UniProtKB/TrEMBL annotation:
Its cofactor is [4Fe-4S] cluster. The keyword Repeat applies. One of its GO terms (molecular function) is quinone binding. This is NADH-quinone oxidoreductase subunit I. NDH-1 shuttles electrons from NADH, via FMN and iron-sulfur (Fe-S) centers, to quinones in the respiratory chain. The immediate electron acceptor for the enzyme in this species is believed to be ubiquinone. Couples the redox reaction to proton translocation (for every two electrons transferred, four hydrogen ions are translocated across the cytoplasmic membrane), and thus conserves the redox energy in a proton gradient. GO terms for cellular component: plasma membrane. The keyword Iron-sulfur applies.
Length: 188
């Protein structure tokens, strides 16, 4: 096998000197400074900012109106129109979750219940929001369409315990979702 020796390209005089590079950087900075003084920055128009910079004024201004429809945010559990749980504790979302943020403890449905054919429902369903990466795999794998990623992106808490959403909190966030649910289908 032949060895091929590569030679580096020769630098020009302006590339050898650092001064032209510094001037280019200063020109970019001055361009941004002049645009911000004239109020022609992105923040002045699209971000609804003060116009003096390219920074969004976060607590007052939010991204809500600029999020695309396909944005995946906070995961939440949903119920059907009657208020029944859609989740059947299949644990597919728990197994597929890359950061292992979901934990489910299945519970049985009593045999005297009207919907005892379903066999189980979640006794505990927790999502650790400090670990969740909003990948959407839990939503895609759910056979009963019980978990959805909402467009909420600002999840805050004062402690780690507050960032672990339990079943009640997840249903509160998710609300009601209409449509066919395989779990309650009489034919299935």
């Amino acid at each position: 096998m032949a060895i091929k020796k590569l030679t580096r390209p020769k630098l020009t005089l302006s590339e050898k000197l650092i001064f032209p590079t510094i001037l280019k950087g200063m020109a970019v900075t001055m361009t941004h400074a002049i645009k911000s003084v004239l109020g022609k920055t992105k923040a002045a128009e699209s971000l609804k900012g003060s116009g003096t910079g390219a920074t969004m004024q976060y607590p007052e201004t939010k991204w809500d109106d600029q999020l695309p429809e396909y944005y995946r945010g906070v995961p939440a559990l949903v119920t059907d129109e009657i208020g029944r749980e859609r989740c059947v504790s299949c644990q597919l979302c728990e197994f597929i979750c890359p950061p292992k943020a979901i934990s489910i403890l299945p519970g049985e449905i009593p045999s005297d219940d009207e919907w005892a054919k379903v066999e189980k429902r979640p006794q505990e369903f927790d999502i650790d929001m400090t670990r969740c990466i909003y990948c959407g795999m839990c939503e895609e794998v759910c056979p009963e369409q019980a978990i959805f990623l909402r467009q909420d992106y600002a999840v805050t808490g004062t402690s780690r315990e507050n960032m672990v959403h339990n079943k009640e909190r997840l249903y509160e966030i998710g609300g009601v979702r209409e449509g066919l649910v395989n779990k309650w289908n009489e034919v299935k």
